[in-house]
């Protein structure tokens, strides 16, 4: 028996923490994992590890994980050979498109896609051949406003400034809980130590959230805000910065700031206080404290994106950093300069080139908002979706009004899923193609290095052998493309393995052959603990991708949306508003089939302020019925003074009690799906992103 020590980064969340994995090769040639630990020599994560990384061995060993293609015949699943599966996909999809048009096939790509570079490099090799406008992803239930604002202001949807957390003196967090998420659109391993270091050097941490989250609990100040009204708070702050002369000059070329000042003149702290529930004096003081800090940064994450004014929120976050001189400044908000630079090598994207057939929702970067997916299947007419391809996704549990989507899936002519499991969504598929498990393939973080709080890079070698008869995800997409092209006569361009693409990206990137670093894949392989390329530096002026080569502070689309906010009725007294919740042991719906991540006390209750319980005659631990416009669920309620009065909280990703799901541990403690309550009609009107926070609900005894 031979033991081997491997080094790679965990891919299960955005923090990409370095790992040390010890394996043993047995006499029969098989391998087993002996231990997974944090890599103390990783300069980025510094030995930090969270429970998710240890569960990588559970994914590898999970008996529920599919290891060969499976075809559904009625209510039973049967193995099918790879070549037969590829031919079946090509035949069915080509036939449906021939009869109903290109847009009759839809595509949904889930969150794990960006955690796997084979999906990032090769999924479009096949999916692009479908030439459908019905493409969807988890982006529009998560972060679409971030990308749209960067597209409008800076000319590229991936040019997103990141908090320089290691050097700031004042950090304002809205709708983010990095102690639970390990950072999000802010790749920041070991975040708790970094936030404590901020406070230790005399800095201040302020968290704005309708729940006193784990991050809020360690903050210097926590402000409750009414769900869905963060834009009002941010407008009050920005208005105060202008009104009290607290703005600073910026070195960046900027267009439109005078228009912004004029447009928000009436959105003062007093009027915005009535909407957001934060006292006017607290709003003004927050603006003064932020402006007074030598180096400050405002960071808004998922909680402010997934609401009716999500795009306004992200725009206002950028403006607050800009007008205080903290945009593109050390200790403020800076753009990462990654070794494989997708900003410089891709176009800036596009917006609203077409709209969805039924509700007229706008596309962004070739994708429509996923809130439109079910209706595109259900509403008859030319262009109705008849087939679906899902990639590493579970939209039944991840997108608004999941029960409606279930109904839509049942009516499809054909459904293909590339996935490891028979889950709440893929149980409807006609065919499931499972790729290799995470530790059986190599990996490079093209996405999360782009949002890192330091410039870092690492190539992750496979830890375990690729099993016989199993394909990597990129190989599945190449084979699907070949089969589809052979049937339809489509022309296929040459391709190459993902690692060769990364090698080209490294060699021609900012640290490549023309730099002192001379980075290549071969050079990177000599650094198994990863390579630190230095702290973030100002670089935005030289990377702007818009024709004006200046920050566009006043996009007409966003100025116009201010009037929608102004016309919104003020909140009703006594209503309950629903928000989500994140836990460090969970990532969406795909982490609930591993014992070490779900053991202990249940974490899928409805949290409710004790005053709200008493007012409704309810008690802690009781089963309650939660009802919204689209549906109802039953769940246990837990009294929590963490909750702002008038607000209830449910975690995302549960609801595993559906028939036909083959996930043993998840099904044993199914919980309820919050997306059986979220409403596909409640959207950010600008981007079409789902408004998952601020959903009006009623709660009563079950």
UniProtKB/TrEMBL annotation:
Location of the 4Fe-4S Mo/W bis-MGD-type domain: 3-62
Top-level taxon: Bacteria
Gene Ontology molecular function, alphabetical: 4 iron, 4 sulfur cluster binding; formate dehydrogenase (NAD+) activity; metal ion binding; molybdopterin cofactor binding
GO CC, alphabetical: membrane; oxidoreductase complex
GO biological process assignments: cellular respiration
EC number: 1.17.1.9
Keywords from the UniProt entry: 4Fe-4S, Iron, Iron-sulfur, Metal-binding, Oxidoreductase
InterPro entries the record matches: MoPterin_dinucl-bd_dom, Mopterin_OxRdtase, Mopterin_OxRdtase_4Fe-4S_dom, Prok_molybdopt-oxidoreductase
PANTHER family in alphabetical order: NADPH-FE(3+) OXIDOREDUCTASE SUBUNIT ALPHA, RESPIRATORY NITRATE REDUCTASE
The protein's name in its UniProt record: Formate dehydrogenase H
Organism: Zestomonas carbonaria
């Amino acid at each position: 028996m031979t033991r081997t020590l491997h080094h790679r980064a965990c891919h299960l969340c955005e923090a990409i923490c370095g790992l040390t994995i010890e394996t043993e090769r047995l006499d029969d040639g098989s391998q087993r994992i002996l231990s997974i630990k944090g890599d103390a020599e990783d300069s980025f994560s510094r030995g930090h590890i969270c429970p998710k990384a240890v569960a990588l061995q559970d994914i590898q060993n999970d008996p529920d994980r599919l290891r060969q293609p499976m075809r559904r015949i009625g209510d039973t699943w049967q193995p099918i050979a790879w070549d037969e599966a590829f031919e079946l996909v090509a035949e069915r999809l080509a036939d449906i498109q021939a009869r109903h048009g290109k847009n009759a096939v839809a595509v949904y790509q889930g969150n794990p896609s960006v955690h796997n570079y084979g999906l990032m490099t090769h999924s479009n090799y096949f999916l692009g051949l479908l030439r459908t406008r019905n493409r969807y992803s988890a982006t529009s239930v998560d972060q679409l406003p971030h990308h749209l604002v960067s597209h409008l202001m800076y000319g590229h949807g991936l040019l997103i400034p990141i908090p320089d957390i290691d050097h700031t003196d004042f950090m304002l967090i809205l709708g983010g809980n990095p102690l639970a998420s390990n950072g999000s659109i802010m790749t920041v391993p070991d975040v708790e130590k970094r936030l404590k270091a901020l406070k230790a050097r005399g800095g201040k941490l302020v968290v704005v959230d309708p729940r006193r989250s784990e991050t809020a609990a360690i903050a210097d100040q926590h402000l409750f805000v009414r769900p869905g009204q963060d834009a009002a708070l941010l407008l009050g702050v920005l208005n105060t910065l202008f009104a009290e002369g607290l703005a600073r000059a910026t070195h960046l070329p900027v267009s439109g700031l005078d228009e912004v000042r004029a447009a928000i003149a009436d959105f003062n702290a007093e009027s915005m206080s009535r909407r957001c529930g934060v006292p006017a004096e607290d709003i003004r003081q927050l603006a003064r404290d932020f402006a007074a800090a030598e180096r400050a940064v405002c960071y808004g994450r998922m909680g402010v994106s997934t609401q009716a004014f999500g795009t306004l929120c992200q725009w206002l976050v950028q403006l607050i950093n800009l007008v205080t001189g903290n945009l593109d400044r050390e200790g403020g908000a800076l753009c990462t300069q990654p070794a494989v630079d997708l900003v410089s090598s891709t176009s800036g994207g596009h917006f609203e080139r077409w709209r969805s057939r039924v509700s007229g929702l706008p596309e962004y970067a070739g994708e429509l908002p996923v809130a439109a997916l079910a209706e595109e299947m259900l509403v008859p007419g030319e262009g109705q979706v008849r087939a679906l391809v899902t990639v590493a996704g579970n939209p039944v549990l991840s997108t608004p009004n999941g029960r409606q989507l279930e109904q839509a899936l049942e009516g499809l002519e054909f459904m293909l899923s590339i996935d490891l499991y028979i889950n709440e969504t893929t149980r409807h598929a006609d065919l499931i193609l499972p790729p290799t498990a995470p530790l059986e393939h190599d990996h490079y973080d093209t996405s999360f290095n782009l949002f890192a709080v330091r410039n870092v890079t690492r190539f992750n070698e496979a830890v375990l052998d690729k099993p016989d008869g199993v394909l990597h995800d990129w190989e599945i997409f190449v084979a699907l493309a070949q089969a589809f092209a052979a049937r339809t006569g489509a022309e296929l361009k040459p391709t190459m393995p993902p690692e060769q693409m990364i090698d080209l990206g490294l060699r021609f990137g900012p640290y490549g052959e023309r730099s002192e670093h001379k980075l290549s894949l071969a050079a990177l392989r000599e650094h198994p603990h990863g390579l630190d390329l230095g702290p973030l530096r100002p670089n935005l002026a030289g990377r702007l991708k818009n024709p004006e080569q200046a920050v566009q502070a006043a996009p007409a689309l966003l100025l116009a949306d201010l009037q929608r906010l102004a016309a919104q009725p003020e909140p009703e007294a006594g209503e309950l508003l629903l928000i989500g919740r994140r836990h460090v042991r969970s990532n969406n719906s795909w982490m609930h089939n591993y014992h070490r991540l779900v053991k202990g006390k249940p974490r899928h209750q409805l949290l409710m302020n004790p005053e709200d319980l008493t007012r409704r005659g309810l008690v802690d631990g009781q089963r309650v019925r939660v009802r919204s416009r689209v549906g109802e669920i039953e769940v246990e309620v837990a009294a929590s003074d963490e909750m702002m009065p008038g607000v209830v909280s449910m975690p995302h990703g549960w609801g595993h009690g559906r028939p036909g799901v083959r996930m043993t541990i998840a099904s044993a403690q199914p919980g309820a799906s919050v997306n059986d309550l979220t409403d596909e009609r409640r959207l950010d009107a600008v981007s079409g992103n789902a408004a998952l926070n601020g959903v009006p609900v009623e709660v009563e005894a079950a």
